[in-house]
Design a protein that fits this description.
72% of the residues lie in helices and 0% in strands. It is an all-alpha fold. It has a single domain (15-443), classed as Growth Hormone, Chain: A.
């Protein structure tokens, strides 16, 4: 790869170059998938009630709110001759996340599990946030949809395996799936150990196999870093929400309702499925743990669908536009979540997950493809970090109101959280119509060189 600057015209990268620069997301999604599919299970096992789950999950979005813009800001201002701009953050995040994944399933009390969620989420965000800016750094505008689609593919593959790990360990390898009251089953424990190893290896593959373009003026970058202290950087990071380009503002509304729905799903699917489909709320029972494992399979299915759909999205977007493609995908997700209310056969949950998977693939790529086309190259990480406020703010809102709504209006019946999530995805889809996208030609097939 030639050493051109970020401000120069970027060459088109080959299929395998995009593959290598995206491969780290396979590991990152191991961490997130294990978190999404198992944290509510761990909390309930350690004694949490249904209406407490959203508040306990609050650690994840608050951590993202603090970490993502800061990491984005400082990754823009980092350059090392050997390690580059984003890759130092990939490596540090991978080391910390691996340690957190090893520690999480060894929690012996609810407060310990909450602290581990804070640490795990912060560590994963250190790696993940610069990956979004990496696509803008490395690819010309016409290849960015392909770059984000490749990330979505690896996110899907990583999540398939990670979500299904407790089920596979139990049913294929005979690892115990139940434990005494207040203890985490070995199937969950070993899933986190394997996930930590996968996380580290995948991210380090990208670190070692990809070279980055240097900034236009390295000396200017160093002077800026020397003149600005830590607190100045933090203030600039959080003030960015008031300086967003118009398209970014429009996309922020779409993101808000999309991620409100996702957070509702991650928090409450285990509780909803075990109570609504398996008719149990006892986390020590065999039937509860069977249902919780099946939720992992459901999450694996929606991520598998996302991995496949990721490659179709650029083709559809070329014909229909990116915003209409995103609208249709979000509607599919809304139908998928709403349909769970009518399901009694666990196998039919897999059909519901098809719609969720289509939405997930688009959420992971289309907003970022639209956003990256209007952002300046030297502030790509900064604005991606600010944009992620609209991932974490809706999660904070969800954590603050879902438990209250369920307890006071829905009799603490978890399935209604998924219904609210489905409605939220429909609203997000309709809001795509207000987005003004700087559309460019999209041709993924040409990247396979």
């Amino acid at each position: 790869m030639s050493q051109i600057s970020l401000g120069s015209a970027k060459p088109r990268l080959s299929f395998w170059q995009i593959w290598n620069m995206s491969f780290g997301f396979l590991g990152i999604q191991f961490g997130f998938a294990l978190q999404n599919a198992n944290v509510s299970r761990i909390f309930e096992t350690l004694g949490a009630s249904k209406d407490e789950l959203p508040i306990l999950w609050l650690a994840a979005p608050v951590t993202g709110l603090l970490v993502q813009p800061i990491v984005g800001y400082y990754s823009d201002r980092t350059w090392h001759e050997k390690w580059g701009r984003r890759r130092p953050f990939f490596a540090v995040g991978a080391i910390l996340a691996t340690l957190a994944l090893f520690a999480m399933p060894n929690s012996t009390a609810l407060w310990m599990a909450v602290i581990m969620l804070w640490l795990m989420d912060a560590s994963i965000n250190i790696s993940m946030e610069p990956f979004r800016a990496f696509v803008g750094d490395m690819l010309p505008n016409e290849q960015r949809t392909s770059g984000f689609a490749m990330q979505s593919f690896f996110i899907g593959i990583g999540a398939i395996v990670a979500s299904a790990l407790p089920y596979m360990l139990t049913n294929w390898f005979g690892v115990s799936n139940v434990a005494a009251e207040g203890s985490i089953p070995d199937s969950v424990r070993w899933s986190f150990y394997l996930g930590g190893i996968a996380y580290f290896l995948a991210v380090m593959w990208t670190v070692l196999k990809t070279k980055e373009y240097p900034p236009d003026d390295i000396e200017k970058l160093r002077e800026e870093n020397a003149s600005k202290g830590v607190f100045t950087g933090l203030a600039e990071s959080f003030m960015g929400i008031f300086q967003m380009p118009k398209t970014m503002v429009q996309l922020s509304f779409v993101q808000f309702f999309s991620w409100f729905a996702l957070f509702a799903m991650w928090i409450y699917t285990t509780s909803a499925v075990t109570s609504h489909v398996y008719n149990t709320s006892d986390p020590t029972s065999e039937i509860y743990n069977e249902g919780a494992d099946w939720v992992g399979i459901c999450f694996a299915i929606y991520n598998g669908v996302a991995a496949l759909v990721a490659f179709l999205l650029p083709v559809v977007a070329k014909r229909l536009s990116r915003r209409i493609t995103h609208l249709l995908a979000l509607f599919c997700g809304g139908i998928g979540l709403l349909s769970i209310f009518f399901v009694q056969d666990p196998n039919l949950l897999l059909v519901s997950m098809i719609g969720v998977g289509i939405a997930w693939a688009s959420i992971l790529s289309m907003p970022y493809a639209m956003l990256s086309s209007i952002l300046p190259a030297d502030k790509m990480g900064y604005y991606m970090g600010v944009f992620n406020f609209f991932i974490v703010i809706p999660q904070i809102v969800a954590a603050g109101i879902l438990g209250f709504l369920l307890k006071n209006f829905f009799g603490n019946v978890s399935i209604y959280a998924l219904v609210l999530g489905g409605i939220s995805l429909f609203i997000a889809g309709l809001l795509c119509l207000i987005v003004q996208d700087n559309e460019v030609a999209i041709d993924f097939a040409k990247d396979k060189k």
